[in-house]
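Re: weekly structure request thread

Next one in the queue (455 aa):
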Amino acid sequence: MNETSNQIKVGEQYTIELMDITHSGEGVGRLENMIVFVEGGLPGDVVEVEIKNVKKTYAQAKLLAITTASPERVTPACPYFEQCGGCQILHMSYQGQLRAKSKMVMDALQRIGGLKEIEVAPIIGMEDPQRYRNKAQFKLDHKGMGFYAKKSHNLVHIEDCLNQPESAADAIKTINALIQELNLSIYDERTHKGYIRGVLQRTNLQGENMITLIINGKDLSQRQAIVEGILAGIPNVKSIYVNINREKGNVILGRKSLCVHGAARLVEQIGELSFSISPNSFFQVNSKQTVKLYDTIKAFANLTGSETVFDLYCGTGTIGLYLAAQAKQVIGIESVGDAILDARENAGLNQIENASFHLGRAEDEMLKIIKEEGLKPDLIILDPPRKGCEETLLAAITELGTPRVIYVSCNPSTLARDLKYLTEAGYAIKAVQPVDLFPGTGHVETVVLMSRVDK
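Done, posted below.
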C-alpha cells in the first residue's frame, strides 16, 4: 500500500464532492489523490461518507448524509429502488442519466482505447423512459414474487415494476394468488426441493403476453386450474408455457419449454419486420429503442444493394434481417444452436431469401465460408456479448481488409479495447452513436462505424 493511501483510514469520516458516476451507480470523488466510490452518490453531490474499504488505488465509502444535493438528484418514482438490484441510477434525472452514459462512452474510448480525438454523437434517449421492458424474469419465495436485492440473493417482494408493462402488476398478483390457492411449493436452491422456480413474462408492443412458469418437475401439475387462473387474471395472454429446469443452481431457464395453452410463439414487430419469440429466445428487451438502434445501424451501413454483409455474433438474426432488403446477401454466424434456428425461422416468417445463418464460432466459420464459397464481405457487423470480440476474430477481419465494420456494443470498456486493436490495425472511426436501451440503469449501447484506411 502506498503512502498516499495510508492517509485514508477505514472508519474515518470525510466530506467529499463527487464528480462522476460508474455504470453500477456509485458516485466517484477524490480524497488525498485517491479515487473514492460512494454507493448512492451522484456527480455534483457534496456528501458525508465513512470509509469502509481501502485498496492500493481506491477506497469505498458509505454514504452518511448529503450536504449539498446534485442538481441531477431526483426522488425515484419506484418505491423499491433503495432495495431492488434492477436499476442503479433512478435517483438521477433522465437527462442527467443520458449525459452520464455519453460520458461513460467517451471516457472509455479515451482512457482504454487511447482515442483522444473521437467525437461521440448525442445519445439517443427515450421520449418516455418507463414501462420499456418486454421481458421480466421474476424470482419467488414463500412470501411472493420479486427481484433480487442489490448484490445479494435476498428477494425484494414487489407489486409492480415501472420498467415492465402495466400487465406485470396483474401477473404478480395473479400468480402469487395461484401459488397460495393451489398450495404450490417454492423451489429452494440450497436443498434443490420445491416446485415453482420462477416466472417469465414476455410482452410485445401490441401488449400481448407470454407467461412461462419455470418448474422443478416433469410436467405442470394442476394444469387446468393454473391456465384458467392466468387467463382470468392477466390481460391479453396469447401463450402459456411451462419450462422444465431440474438442474441445481440459479440458472433461470431449462432447455425444454412446453406450450400448455395458446400460440407457440409471440410475434414482435420491429420496423417492417416480424420476429418470432419463444420463452428461450434472445431478443432485445426494449422494442421501441431497438428500432432506433437498428435504424442507426442501417444508416451507418448505407447499403446500395450490391454488398455482401457478414453479421457476426448474429443471435437470432435480427440485425442482418433488418439490413437484408438493402443488401445483395447477408450471412449470419452464431455459436448458439437455438438462436440459429430462431434466425432461420425469422427469415422464413419475413420471406427473406437472401439471408443465411450458420452455426459456429465467428472467427472459425467466417474464414470457412470465405474459403469454401469464395465470398468476401463488404461490411462486417459485430455484435458481441459483454466480453467483446475474440482477438483472433479481430485479427482475421484486419487480415481480410474488410472495407467497413460496424461494431454494436453493450459494454464501453470492451468496445474501447477492441477499437484500439482495430484502429492500430488500419481502421479509422467514422461515427460513434450511443443509444439508451435501459433507462434507470448504468447500461448503454453504442454503435461505431469504421472504415479501412491505408496504413
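Residues 268 and 397 are 33 Å apart (CA to CA). Confidence is low (pLDDT under 50) at residues 1-5.
Next request, please.
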